[in-house]
Fold TetR/AcrR family transcriptional regulator.
Amino acid sequence: MRIRFRSPGYTPPVSSVAADPSESGRRRLPAQARSRERVERILDSAARLVVSNGVDGLTTRSIAEAAGLPVASLYQYFADKEAVLLAVCRRDMAEMDEQVASDLAAVSELTVHSLVETSMRAFVAVYHRRPAFMQIWMRGRANPAVYDYGRHHNRRIAANLLALGVQAGLLTTDRYDDDEMSAIAELAVEVGDKALQLAFQHDPQGDPFLVDQAVALVADYLERVTSDR
């Protein structure tokens, strides 16, 4: 089974999904290879500074200096440091989508539990590779654009996983209509996200016990919901 997650521009059939806020604060999109390389340097430098110094001490000047660029070059692409942080999250969430799709495609037998565990452990794998992301995301409420984009991403993840579960015959019940199943899927993703945030709150590698409990929490909920299929 080939799994393909939709791009950030796709809006799934869930009435509560808002417009994609991912370009908030972005001055212009890099079209040439040199510009794209500069943007990647800016994002990588910001991520390293977040890991070493935290989010609050970040400035556009420190990001530019770490990237080896004049601060004016940074302002060609980003309005402020919050826009840089949003771009880091956008990049890392796209990597999560690809990791989830790749890992689900390799699952030999798809069940509710394997769907949940594979997806959540794919997120964890990306958190390990991108340690700045979780720090930025846990601070998301201080950056409305990051928070809005994260919620948008969670709704999109929920819609894609629900579609896959329905296609595989796992998430169809007689008790809930389509809108209710969409709400159930979104709740499961939001609960899993919050549980993983707790697991990574004090441990950059994630507390293994809490990660296991997060997987069990979401899987048990969805298995109970779909037990009458």
About this structure: Residues 87-225 form a domain with the Tetracycline Repressor; domain 2 fold (CATH 1.10.357.10). Residues 42 and 67 are 6 Å apart (CA to CA). Residues 1-19 have pLDDT under 50 and may be disordered.
